[in-house]
Amino acid sequence: MSYQYTAIGDSLTTGFGALPGNGFVPVYRRMAEARLRTPIRLTNLGVNGLTTDGLEQRLKGDYNFRLAVQEADLITISIGGNDLIKAAKAAGGRPGDLSPLLQKALRGCKRNISDIMGTLSQLKAGMSKPYIIRIVDCTIPIRR
């Protein structure tokens, strides 16, 4: 038996800035293989600079993203940091302007992450096997 692991998200998912094999995706894969004592196939769909809105659009319209999620037993999501970076850049170094922009970005992240989770749920609907979703870099609190 083997499992399919699909990683979706931004530069943290691609491993940007980490030594080869030391980003969180390959480390998580190795840890899961050791824990489950079985090989794990990996599909890494990380995109440098991806925002929550961009991930939502890819999950809704990109066949490869949709198929990879449908086939996955393990899914990690790393998203949200670029939304906040864009808000900080928009403030242009003016600290007084930062808070309203960050609040707006956080509201957008929350809305988009809710939509992303809804889309993931739709893609996994009707699947008979269990799956795990781990949110690795969530920059907003999720309240239930």
Radius of gyration: 16 Å
Mean pLDDT: 88
Total count of strands: 4
What structural class results from the helix and strand content? alpha/beta
In N-to-C order, the SSE pattern is EHHEHHEHHE
Mass-distribution shape: globular
**Count of helical segments?**
6
Q: Unreliable stretches, pLDDT < 50, 5 or more residues?
A: 138-144
- Summarize the amount of helix as a percent range: 40-55%
Largest sheet: 4 strands, parallel
Oligomer: single chain
Strands of the largest sheet, in order across it? 2-1-3-4
Gap between N and C termini: 35 Å
Strand content: 15-25%
Detailed description of the structure:
This protein is of the alpha/beta class and 144 residues long. 53% of the residues lie in helices and 16% in strands. The protein contains 6 helices and 4 strands; from the N terminus they run βααβααβααβ. It has helices spanning 11-14, 24-36, 52-61, 63-71, 81-90, 95-124; strands spanning 3-9, 40-46, 74-78, 132-135. It has a 4-stranded parallel β-sheet, with helices on both faces. Helix 3 packs parallel to helix 6 and helix 5 (81-90) packs antiparallel against helix 6 (95-124). The chain is globular. It starts with a strand and ends in a 9-residue tail after the last strand. Residues 138-144 have low confidence and may be disordered.
List keywords for this structure.
16% strand; disordered C terminus; 144 residues; alpha/beta; single chain
In short:
The protein is α/β, with parallel strands linked by helices. The chain is built from six helices and four strands, in the order βααβααβααβ.
